[in-house]
Amino acid sequence: MASRNIVIAVAVATLTLVVGGSRTSAQQPATPAPLPAGQTNNPFPQPIARDAGVIAVTLREFATLPDIDGVAARMMTLVEEPATKRLFVSDMRGPIYTVSADGRTVTPYLDLRDQKWTVAVQSQGRERGLQSFVLHPQFAQAGTPGAGKLYTWADSTHQAPAADFTTPNPTSTHDTVLLEWTAKTPGAASYDGAPPREVIRVRQPFANHNGGAVAFNPLARAGGGDFGLLYVGIADGGSGGDPMNLAQNLGSAFGKVFRIDPLGKNGRGGKYGVPTSNPFVKQADALPEIFAYGIRNAQRFAWDVRGGAMYLSDIGQNIVEEVSPVSAGANLGWNTWEGSFKFVSRQAVLTEAPRADRRMTYPVVEWDQQDPVLLSGGSAASVGVIVYRSTTVPQLTGRLLFGDMPSGELFHVSADTLPGGGQDPIRRVLFRTASGREPRAFLAIVQEKNAAQGKSPATRADLRFDADAAGRIFLLNKADGTLRVIEP
Fold first, then answer.
1. Which residues, at least 6 apart from 77, have a Cβ–Cβ distance to it below 8 Å?
2. 485 pLDDT above the threshold of 90
3. Any domain includes 1
4. What are phi and psi of 146, to 5 degrees?
5. The whole model's pTM is what?
6. Number of folded domains that form the chain
């Protein structure tokens, strides 16, 4: 870490909205009080290396998702169906498409906007919509409990049903709903099942920080304790600074990672199961669904095939973006800590040593929202995390990959010698798109595509990325409708 004795200035106005790391409400954060001479609110004065340690890879256009009303697909999540090798890719506005293994065929599979499903997707702004989805690990295995089952985690304007989890806020903006869909024929070109079954409904107090990632542990095997258990990222409820202090409240669902058995019955309303191995099952004042807490806005989960460690990318508030390890019962700190640094909402200056509370789980890597390698104006948001053990792209083997959503920067650090926080070890991944071209950042490639499409150049990439079992890494964005794949 560049400096261990620094001062962090944090000032957040009431009900400030943070969208992908950039503030969008009419009421902007309060101006921090002047810092004493010689003190700084920059946690990492040494910028991320722009040229040192760069890994250059080839990036190829793989498939194109359709526009909706002239607006590019807002790609959010990609998952592979192992039996057919099809890729499933979501548009945040509600559609899910399948993409053939060679990328040549894109087929509508399921559209949550269809009125017959009564989902009523709320997809206004950058943060609301179909947040994430995942296939049950038994999706293609006929005769198993998870056969044909697909789970979506989406924002909805439909608030008539009672919510399973709420907040003390007197008003709400929408609900985020976990739905279970069951296809009759898992290998069919499009979804052929009945309307979905509701698993969990969360009533959102504010319009931002909605949902997060949903995932099954891909390393779990049938008969093992983690097999078929669904990890659900629930953000802190929004506004700014977690004003109701929900993330540290074990009696609240907000700011947590849940772990549930979607096929079980001992959870609320008999709609899901609570694993007896969850860390707070026997704690009277805690929700038994909680696996980890102190989360602000979790975007992706990842597991390392070498040792099974779990990681999470979490969007920061005013200072840092972070990638953190996750274990049963872990407290990732928010809103007491923002990354390695103490956070005090609506107070101007705080002097305290980083990582001072040993009870917290701190990031393995984090970066300054104002770093010059990112977009100007402090627009930053942690997204994506992959522990890359494949040799398909050998340059990336043994690297922990993560990214910055608005700028589209893809970063790497060693997955075997993990950093202890800070941004000093962070290095960039750049992309070649044609023979002889210099490696470039992802946003420049998106902007070049925009020009070819006759559209105005995107000001941000809104990067996401996921991998398939063969070790292919796919880059998603919300600006040009193009799905791309990294090659050696």
1. 89, 90, 132, 133, 134, 464, 466, 476
2. yes
3. no
4. -95, 10
5. 0.92
6. 1
